[in-house]
Amino acid sequence: MARTAGVDEAGRGPLAGPVVAAAVILPDGEFAGLADSKTLSESARRRLAGEIRIRAVAWALAVVSPGDIDRLNILQATMLGMQQAVARLAPQPGLVLVDGNRCPALVLPARAIVGGDASEPAISAASILAKVARDQLMVTLDEVHPGYGFAQHKGYPTAAHRAALERLGPCIAHRQSFAPVRRAMAARTALTGDRTLR
Fold first, then answer.
1. How would DSSP label each residue in 34-85?
2. Structure letter (DSSP) for residue 93
3. Angle at the Cα of 139 from the Cα atoms of 148 and 128, rounded to 5 degrees
4. CA dihedral 121, 126, 132, 137 (to 10 degrees)
5. pLDDT band for position 134 (cuts 50, 70, 90)
6. Out of 3.60.15.10, 3.30.420.10, 3.20.20.370, 3.40.1030.10, which CATH number does the structure's domain 4-142 have?
């Protein structure tokens, strides 16, 4: 029987860090606790991510760097990540369900579902894996680039993050094509004449 994969991403809105896509084929039967990752606590997401990795028929992740986001734009970077995650599934699914209103270019049949991360268990599972993986990457980036608070806000444009951007200027983990980062870079260059990223 052809399997169905769910696909979702995490990290479209942040000013820093990668976008992470996940694809998951769930086993037949009930998988309790799955929901849109944004509605779950961090501890619940981490617990469920561990269960998904163990119980899934297949799962895969793809990470698209800030540099590729700047080169492609965030929408195309997200589509690329989804393509890569699906391509890494073994076995390959017969149908791909994608959260949102558009599908990446795939060789497999695919359907976009608005709100699918809340209504389709396989998409919920992908949402959880992508969110947990991205959060872990941002904690690592916090160690590499201290002072920005990446471990706390995960690169999203919080007041604390914006203040750190103004104080420190952007680092190489920031998405230079995003307007707040461009403004911070311009302000730093105007003050110091230095365009080097930390």
1. ---GGGS-HHHHHHHHHHHHHH-SEEEEEEE-HHHHHHH-HHHHHHHHHHHH
2. P
3. 125
4. -170
5. very high
6. 3.30.420.10
Q: Is 9 assigned to a binding site?
A: yes
Q: Decide: 96 and 105 in contact? Cβ < 8 Å.
A: no
* pTM, entire model: 0.94
Task: Give the tokens for residue 60.
Answer: 């895969």
Tell whether residue 194 is among the known ligand binding residues.
Answer: no
Q: Is 8 annotated as a binding residue?
A: yes
Per-residue model confidence as pLDDT tens digits over 144-196: 999 999 999 999 999 999 999 999 999 999 999 999 999 998 887 777 666 66
Domain boundaries defined on the chain = 4-142, 146-192
**φ and ψ of 77, to 5 deg:** -65, -40
Query: What distance lies between CA 139 and its chain's CA centroid?
Result: 14
Q: Give the three-class secondary structure for 123.
A: helix
Q: Which position has the token pair 């769930």? A: 26
